[in-house]
């Protein structure tokens, strides 16, 4: 079963979207993040994906009060990340009411530590965010809010984390993120071949209900919905209905 998951990206306490991860190409939406989370819940969402964009780049929890308010106020399970660099950060987000902690930069830079946290807290409490760009024939893994290049690739880390017992994998094609050009279905087919045990959350480029349907038919576990919802291309309720209809045909 595929689950559409609305996303809220936070910068300076505001709801924003970036274009291809570029902090200089930001759209700010005039909506309160807590009110937005409640709206998604009223439309039927059961999970919410929250990213602290300031924290992702700085390594500090710069939007933690807003995140805590969202977790406390909306009838949603929250998965959240941005700024987690150590185990203390994992505990801080769990203590803030987050159901799953999303690990990006640290999952790339220190996989042995993250594997230990998966063992300690359980695979259900951790989401690996291996966001990627295709460069020089490899799926590269930039870190620090996609601003720093790393040597490890998606091909390096998928087998490692599969062996470590990780379950939840969020993978964004950064070149599609915020572009409304459609998701990279080939990327998710590649992941399914290389590491079939993961529950994969597809992210980046979703622009229409047809995209939600296509990803559902492909068998991903989740579809992250950002700009398309904020711009009113479709509603959360419509996305859930489209996914449920596609699931029924699988």
Automatic annotation (TrEMBL):
Gene Ontology molecular function terms on file: 1-(5-phosphoribosyl)-5-[(5-phosphoribosylamino)methylideneamino]imidazole-4-carboxamide isomerase activity
EC number in record: 5.3.1.16
Signal peptide coordinates: none
Catalysed transformations (reactions): 1-(5-phospho-beta-D-ribosyl)-5-[(5-phospho-beta-D-ribosylamino)methylideneamino]imidazole-4-carboxamide = 5-[(5-phospho-1-deoxy-D-ribulos-1-ylimino)methylamino]-1-(5-phospho-beta-D-ribosyl)imidazole-4-carboxamide
GO terms for cellular component: cytoplasm
Bilayer-spanning residue ranges: none
GO BP term, pick one: L-histidine biosynthetic process
Keyword annotations from UniProtKB, A to Z: Amino-acid biosynthesis, Cytoplasm, Histidine biosynthesis, Isomerase
Pfam families in alphabetical order: His_biosynth
Subcellular localization(s) per the UniProt record: Cytoplasm
Primary localization class, coarse: cytoplasm
Entry annotation: catalytic residues: 9 (proton acceptor), 131 (proton donor)
Enzyme class, first EC level, given as a word: isomerase
Superkingdom of this protein's organism: Bacteria
The protein's annotated pathway: Amino-acid biosynthesis; L-histidine biosynthesis; L-histidine from 5-phospho-alpha-D-ribose 1-diphosphate: step 4/9
Record family assignment: Belongs to the HisA/HisF family.
HAMAP family per the UniProt record, alphabetical: HisA
The protein, known as: 1-(5-phosphoribosyl)-5-[(5-phosphoribosylamino)methylideneamino] imidazole-4-carboxamide isomerase
Species whose genome carries this gene: Luteibacter pinisoli
Gene behind the chain: hisA
């Amino acid at each position: 079963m595929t689950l559409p998951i609305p996303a809220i990206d936070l910068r300076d306490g505001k709801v924003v979207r970036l274009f291809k991860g570029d902090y200089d190409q930001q759209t700010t939406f005039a909506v309160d993040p807590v009110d937005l989370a409640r709206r998604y819940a009223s439309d039927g969402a059961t999970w919410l994906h929250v990213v602290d964009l300031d924290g992702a780049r700085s390594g500090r929890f710069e939007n933690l009060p807003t995140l805590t308010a969202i977790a406390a106020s909306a009838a949603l399970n929250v998965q959240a990340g941005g700024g987690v660099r150590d185990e203390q950060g994992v505990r801080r987000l769990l203590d803030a009411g987050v159901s799953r902690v999303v690990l990006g930069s640290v999952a790339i830079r220190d996989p042995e530590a993250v594997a230990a946290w998966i063992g300690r807290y359980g695979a259900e409490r951790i989401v690996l965010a291996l966001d990627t760009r295709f460069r020089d024939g490899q799926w590269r893994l930039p870190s620090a809010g996609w601003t720093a290049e790393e040597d490890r690739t998606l091909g390096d880390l998928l087998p490692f984390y599969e062996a470590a017992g990780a379950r939840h994998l969020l993978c964004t094609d950064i070149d599609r993120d915020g572009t409304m050009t459609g998701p990279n279905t080939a990327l998710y087919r590649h992941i399914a071949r290389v590491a079939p045990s993961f529950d994969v959350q597809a992210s980046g480029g979703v622009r229409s209900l047809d995209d939600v349907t296509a990803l559902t038919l492909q068998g991903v576990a989740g579809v992250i919905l950002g700009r398309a919802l904020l711009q009113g291309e479709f509603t959360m309720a419509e996305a859930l209905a489209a996914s449920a209809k596609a699931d029924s045909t699988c």
